């Protein structure tokens, strides 16, 4: 062999040995599964520096984006949003801010509005092309709604209470003293916006006076002082006793099912030392045909177990506390994001996910679904209801250890 050829062969051999050695050092391990390896634990410290422009206040809110775990992989559509940075529309009497598909593209099935009405503040009489579901988070509110049979429903709702108005049902909302009301509206259409609501003042202002007179059987001048622009939210007078308002609209009779539901006072579907879950779907809140919801309380350090929903996307409103969620999809794709009070999350149907309370107080979040029936599949429940020998072959875990997995759908762990 001539010297050049021999040197070439030796160099190639050395390169191959180095590659093999490098591969051995960087071989995938438990908690570090990918090639090439992901995450800060696999990076040279010099490469982790970030000398460019920064916003420390913003960075501190998203540690899992700044330094993802090594188990994160792929590129997922952003599933984090927030009411905290959504612009408020403010008028005398209250305000609102929204997260729709326009600002949160993943949220195709559901849109959300966070609204505040001061004492006496009125969300003017209106209706929507989408159904409206709501949860009260502060204060008290008087709701009114009319069904197609002419049956009116008037009720006062407080913290933890829900209401549901089917698409096209006309309704109004008014904050009650002493604190007014704050609530979150969930619409069963990701495009529904506060700017696409059918407002009664708009309609009257854009109808010819003689037609108004003919329609209501009164002279035209009765309408001479109507608002020429919509009211949307306005400061009104606080209403009197509930019974008086109910009596005033009783001539049409009562609807067969109430349009409100006391979720906060309901018995938990799941309850253990790590938290609880309360549920409202069409089985318990019978009028709510297009939105089901779970109110979840997770204790510090506990986790909402690994699960998915087979029949609907999950829209989340983080009410209290802080936590992080990892979402899994085919690919593999996995991404972890941090959430705080006022944030909004979204998980597509069939995507696996797990939530951990990373704070020092209870984490409370609302999970809403565009469906009439709440459905969930627990990973642990599936594994414990599959022949143990088969599961053991998948994970190289002894059957004796699989027997320790929870088989009772605890929802929140540890139980």
Q: Quick summary of this structure?
A:
This protein is an alpha+beta fold and 415 residues long.
Number of helices: 10
Give the termini separation: 71 Å
Number of strands: 24
Structural class: alpha+beta
Oligomer: single chain
Helix content: 10-25%
Radius of gyration: 28 Å
Q: What about the largest sheet? A: 11 strands, antiparallel
| Strand content range | 25-35%
Shape: elongated
Unreliable residue stretches: 1-25
The average pLDDT score comes to 93
What does this structure look like?
With 415 residues, the protein is α+β, with helices and mostly antiparallel strands. The chain has 10 helices and 24 strands. Strands 2, 3, 4, 5, 6, 7, 8, 9, 10, 11 and 12 form an 11-stranded antiparallel beta sheet that branches. It has a 7-stranded antiparallel beta sheet with strand order 1-20-17-22-15-14-13, with no helix packed on it. Mean pLDDT is 93; it is low at 1-25.
List the helices and strands and how they pair.
Elements: H1 3-25, H2 45-48, H3 56-59, H4 63-66, E1 80-82, E2 89-91, E3 94-99, E4 111-117, E5 121-127, E6 132-146, E7 152-158, E8 161-165, E9 171-187, E10 198-199, H5 200-205, H6 209-216, E11 233-235, H7 242-248, E12 260-262, E13 270-272, E14 275-280, E15 292-298, E16 303-308, E17 314-320, E18 322-329, E19 333-340, E20 343-347, E21 352-357, E22 363-369, E23 377-378, H8 379-383, H9 388-395, H10 399-402, E24 412-413
Antiparallel strand pairs: 1-20, 2-3, 3-4, 4-9, 5-9, 5-10, 5-11, 6-7, 6-8, 6-9, 8-12, 13-14, 14-15, 15-22, 16-21, 16-23, 16-24, 17-20, 17-22, 18-19, 18-21
């Amino acid at each position: 062999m001539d010297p050049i050829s021999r040197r070439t062969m030796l160099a190639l051999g050395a390169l191959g040995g180095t590659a093999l050695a490098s591969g051995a050092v960087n071989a995938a391990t438990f908690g570090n599964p990918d090639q090439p390896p992901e995450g800060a634990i696999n990076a040279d410290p010099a490469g982790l520096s970030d000398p460019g422009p920064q916003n420390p206040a913003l960075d501190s809110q998203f540690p899992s984006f700044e330094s993802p775990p090594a188990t994160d992989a792929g590129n997922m559509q952003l599933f984090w949003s927030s009411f905290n940075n959504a612009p408020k529309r403010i008028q005398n009497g209250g305000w609102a801010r929204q997260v729709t598909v326009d600002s949160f593209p993943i949220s195709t099935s559901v849109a959300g509005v966070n609204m505040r009405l001061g004492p006496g503040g009125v969300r003017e009489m209106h209706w929507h092309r989408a159904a409206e579901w709501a949860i009260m988070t502060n204060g008290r509110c008087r709701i009114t709604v009319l069904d197609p049979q002419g049956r009116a429903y008037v009720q006062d709702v407080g913290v933890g209470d829900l209401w549901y108005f089917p698409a096209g049902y006309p309704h109004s909302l008014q904050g009650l003293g002493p604190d007014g009301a704050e609530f979150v509206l969930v619409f069963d259409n990701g495009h529904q916006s506060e700017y696409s609501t059918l407002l009664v003042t708009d309609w009257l202002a854009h109808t010819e006076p003689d037609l108004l007179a003919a329609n209501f059987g009164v002279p035209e001048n009765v309408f001479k002082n109507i608002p020429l622009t919509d009211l949307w939210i306005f400061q009104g007078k606080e209403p009197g006793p509930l019974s008086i308002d109910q009596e005033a609209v009783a001539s049409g009779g009562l609807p067969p099912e109430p349009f409100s539901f006391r979720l906060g006072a309901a018995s938990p579907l799941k309850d253990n030392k790590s938290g609880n879950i309360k549920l409202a779907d069409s089985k318990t809140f019978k009028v709510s045909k297009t939105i089901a919801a779970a109110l979840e309380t997770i204790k510090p350090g506990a986790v909402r177990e690994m699960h998915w929903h087979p029949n609907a996307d999950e829209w989340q409103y983080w009410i209290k506390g802080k936590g992080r969620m990892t979402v899994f999809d085919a690919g593999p794709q996995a991404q972890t994001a941090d959430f705080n009070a006022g944030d909004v999350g979204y998980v597509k149907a069939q995507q696996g996910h797990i939530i951990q309370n990373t704070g020092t107080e209870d984490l409370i979040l609302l999970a809403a679904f565009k469906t009439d029936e709440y459905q969930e599949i627990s990973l642990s429940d599936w594994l414990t209801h599959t022949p143990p020998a088969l599961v053991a072959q998948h994970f190289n875990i002894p059957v004796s250890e699989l027997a320790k997995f929870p088989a009772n759908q605890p929802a929140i762990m540890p139980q």
